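Standup notes
- HV: blocked on the assembly model, inputs below
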Amino acid sequence: MSGDHAELPAAARVRQLEDQVIAAGLTTDAELDEILAARYRTGSPASGTRMVARAWANPGFLDRLLADGNAAAAEAGFGGGDGGYGYRLKAVQNTAQRHNVIVCTLCSCYPTSLLGPSPSWYKSFAYRSRTVREPRAVLAEFGLELPAETEILVWDSSAETRYLVVPACPAGSAGLDEDALALLVTRDGMIGTAAL
Amino acid sequence: MARFGIGARVRARAGDPAGHTRLPRYVRGQQGEIVDDHGSWPLPDEAVRGTARTEPVYAVRFAARDLWGAGSHSVTVDLWESYLEEAQ
């Protein structure tokens, strides 16, 4: 993709890779731009917040989301059966007893169709290597101090499943409608590095 | 057809494959439990060479204590079937 951030070393490497595949006739600049534009049109944390808000407001939808994330996403109007990106969507629910957190130790796999582009720290070596080894310490550095008795489940998305954390609904939100509930959901809450 | 069912104890293969793989090094040789069946997906070890064979993928849960010698959490890793063998 031509244009922005050309001064960054990673951008130079990406540009060299693009030049190679374009030279090989596998794609074009215009095609790459369109793929990225399509992702940014639909892939936004706002989509994830709508999913979570609906799950909080509607126990039946929560059950369907936990049972089959792709079908629930399609039902909520976010992408086709596979989210449009060819992965399985699996939602995991935080409770008072269990806290889920998502990482990709091999690279940076992330549910972009529901959360948009991943934050830079998600792709850092520190986050990727430490989250599987000492999640409690990593979460504390994010400001999330979990009770000692809370069970921590780390999910390393090393294959073709992308994970969405359904945070526990904040206290005091009873009676709010889906629009209001969605405003309470954060990106980090859906990764599992924050509670709400 | 999936070889392993939910609840099965499995061991991630040890050793270092010659080419690309998505079997993370930190679980190689470790035992865990199948907790979910993700369906079948192209095996990346072969897909990089242009073939399209699919294989069942499982969520395998490992205890932090087994992986690191300490810790009370679990780490669930998504692994293709050929990365796994029955636990001894």
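- HV (later): unblocked. The longest strand of chain A covers residues 88-93. Residues 9-41 of chain A form one domain.
- Next: hand off to the docking folks.
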